[in-house]
Each structure stands twice: as C-alpha cells, then as structure tokens.
Amino acid sequence: MAERIDGKSVSAKVKEEVRLETEKLKEQGIVPGLAVVLVGDDPASRTYVNNKKKACAQVGFYSEEYALPATTSQEELMDLVDRLNHDPKINGILVQSPLPKGLDEEAVVEAISPEKDVDAFHPSNVGRIMIGNFHFLPCTPAGVIELLKTAGVTIAGKNCVVIGRSNIVGKPMAMLLLHENGTVTICHSKTQNLKEICRQADILIAAVGRKHFVTADMVKPGAAVIDVGINRDENGKLCGDVDFEAVEKIASCITPVPGGVGPMTIAMLMKNTLSAAKIQHGLPL
Length: 285
Ligand code: NDP
What we know:
This protein is an alpha/beta fold. The chain is about 40% helix and about 15% strand. It has two domains: about 30-115, Rossmann fold; about 140-260, Rossmann fold, CATH 3.40.50. It has helices spanning about 5-25, 45-60, 75-85, 105-110, 125-130, 140-150, 170-180, 195-200, 245-250, 260-280, and strands at about 5, 35-40, 60-70, 90-95, 160-165, 185, 205, 225, 230, 240, 255. The strands form three sheets. Strands 1-11-8-7-5-6 form a six-stranded parallel β-sheet. A three-stranded parallel β-sheet has the order 3-2-4, sandwiched between helices. A two-stranded antiparallel ribbon has the order 9-10. Bound molecules: NADPH dihydro-nicotinamide-adenine-dinucleotide phosphate.
C-alpha cells in the first residue's frame, strides 16, 4: 500500500517557516504585503481568494483584497495593477484566474511588475525558469517538488512523466523536474500510447482535469504518483485525476485529493511573497 503524502502537514511546515522569517523581517520594519485581485463572482475563485487571505493572516503578512465586479473594464483592471506595482506596501500581486470573458488575461499578467509577479506567470519569470535563474517558482509545480522531496523521492535520473502541458502546471512542472535532473516526458491530448508511456514513469504527475483519468494499469508498480487535478464527482465531492483507491495499491507513494497538492500551492505563494519582499528590500533570499 502506498504511503499517502500529506500535503496539509507539509504546507503547514512551509507556512510556519515563512511565519518565522516574517517575524524576523518585521524586526527590521518590513512587512511582506500581498494584493489579491478577484474579478467577477466565480465561487471556486472566491474560495481560493479566501484561502489565500487566510494564509496571509497565518504567516503575518499584510494583505489587500480587491473584489471587482464582472463588468470591470480592461482599463480599470490595468489601472489597478499599475497602482499596485507602485505601492511600496505591496510586494506581491496576484490576479485570480480565470478572468471573466472579455478581459485580456495575458495583457494583465504582462502588466504586473515581474518583481511582484508571485504567481511566476509573467513572460520574464517564465523565461527565467526556462534558463534556471529564477527568484520565484510557479506555486503548484514548486509545491509538487516540495512534496516529492519530503516523501524522500529521488528525482535525479528518474523517468518523470507529466500528463498535461498547460502554462500554469504542465510545462513549468516539466521544467522544474528537469532542473532536478529528472528525465522528463510531457504528455497531452495528442499523445499516442499514453498508457505505455505512463507505465515507464518512476514519477507520474497528473494535471489533466479529468476524474479517474489515471487508472491502475497506467502506473508502474512502486511509482510515486502526484495528483494535481481538482475535479468534482457526480455527488459534488472533490476528487483528483487519479483513481486513488486502485492506484494506492500499486504506487510507493501518492497524494490524495483533497489534502495533497492543493494546500501546497498556497504555501508556495506565501514563500514567493516573502522572497518578493526580501528582493524589493535588497535582502538576500
Ligand atoms: P488545462 O485544461 O489547462 O490543461 C489540461 C491538460 O491536460 C492539457 O495540456 C491537455 O492537453 C491535457 N489533456 C486533456 N485531455 C487529455 C487526454 N485525454 N490525454 C492526455 N492529456 C490530456 O488544465 P490546468 O493545467 O490548468 O489544470 C489541470 C488540473 O489541475 C485541473 O483539474 C485544475 O483544476 C488542477 N489545478 C490544481 C491546482 C492545485 O493547486 N492543486 C492548481 C492549478 C490547477 P492539450 O494541451 O493537448 O489540450
């Protein structure tokens, strides 16, 4: 039976480290600040924003929330980002995606100052990740790496398969595994022989967005399986991309949903905001 990797406890540990470092910064008169911008009334986005605000309070950050109506214009949103870029109390800016239809998300991301882009979505930060010279790592993939390390999984030299190639999860995930010296394969909807490729994986990462997509016959016995997916089953219950019950019997370790990767994303956001505050005050990371 696989070891369950407890994302809640690992995220609590990361947040506690951030809280202790924040206390030290406060002695120097520095309070890390995060601005979270929510446009529209998507309930899932509202939950994410609430969780982010709660985490800010836990670690001792200053935080501001901007809840804007779905009718907000591109110009109004860009003006807000510009104001936050210049606000010295704010070290990190996060615009919750997805934005309502009609708003240009790419333009908004590009308008965020790269030093305050704690999601690491700005092209300049994406380029830095590609090169391997980065300040911030994208939160979800960075959380996955942290979970693997905590579980004692060696990445170097291992076959790593990432299912999904989105800009926020799949691609940066593959890049971080490569930086850790994994041998990485990225799969997507046009991939042929997906099952065979997945069965080669020592580390299998699912970021598809489909319930029970990864079945037991796709998993190599003893593999580490990380489930990034967040889906709802027919009863509205949260579930991941992996058929957890069946795969748990084969894998060496596995993340549950909920309680796996999800809490790590927020913990890594706190870590990035702390790094942003240090960089903006000329302190070493
Ligand atoms: P996207 O929809 O942007 O990407 C999904 C990827 O899955 C695409 O690259 C797509 O391929 C691939 N895919 C779809 N169908 C198949 C298939 N049949 N075979 C192989 N690959 C397939 O989703 P995201 O990357 O944004 O998110 C993925 C999941 O992770 C979602 O459930 C999301 O909710 C969750 N998530 C969780 C987070 C967390 O904190 N735990 C944070 C962010 C996301 P193609 O490119 O060819 O279309």
